[in-house]
């Protein structure tokens, strides 16, 4: 199958409004966006605290965060599955094979990445930004927010990178989501399913749709991205 044929197939799937494809795109976006938001709310503050403060063990924490960015998604999926399965400590919640379970897993996956990227961004900031804010009477929280605002382009880039990591994720979505049609099936799990059935054309077309969705999100961020 040529690239032009795959592109035509992908375009046809979108233009005809194939319900299964639209559902998979919707699940991918919902899970990825929510996980990115939660990961940002947790990962960015962690990264800021590590980068902006001097304390014993800081280098070890930085090394740990960088190492966790390579944590296999399948392992995260297995960890969350163990927690949410019927015999697991959180099995009573009944979250396994739901989008909520996928959000939990993907949030766990993206927190170290966003924290590590934030460490790199804030670590390169001018220390005088926070010092000046404190001198002018700002609280510690407001001073920290001032630094983040000044380094907003780097933070936005980190968040977009985290989103890209999540929307293309497969292991967690497959293990704790279950690849249920019109419920937990994402674009990546749909690609895995179609290629396992030998339908490489549809799998390739879905891959192009995933890239198109990721491109659209990045273009949207670029349009509204704050400038200096």
Give an overview in words.
This protein has 228 residues and is mostly helical. The protein has a domain at 28-184: Orthogonal Bundle (MetI-like fold). Helices cover 76% and strands 0% of the residues. The protein contains 11 helices and no strands. Helix 2 packs parallel to helix 5 (99-123) and helix 4 packs across helix 5 (99-123). It is globular and about 65 Å long.
What labels describe this entry?
MetI-like fold
Say how many strands there are: 0
Supply the CATH class of the domain at 28-184: Mainly Alpha
In terms of DSSP E residues, the strand content is under 5%
Query: What is the overall number of helices?
Result: 11
CATH architecture of the domain at 28-184: Orthogonal Bundle
CATH topology of the domain at 28-184: MetI-like fold
What would you give as the CATH superfamily of the domain at 28-184?
MetI-like
Describe the global form: globular
Low-confidence stretches: none
Detail the topology: elements first, then pairings.
Elements: H1 3-15, H2 19-52, H3 58-68, H4 73-84, H5 99-123, H6 127-135, H7 140-150, H8 152-167, H9 171-177, H10 187-196, H11 200-224
What is the compact description of this entry?
By secondary structure, the protein is mainly alpha-helical. The protein has 11 helices and no strands. The radius of gyration is 20 Å and the shape is globular.
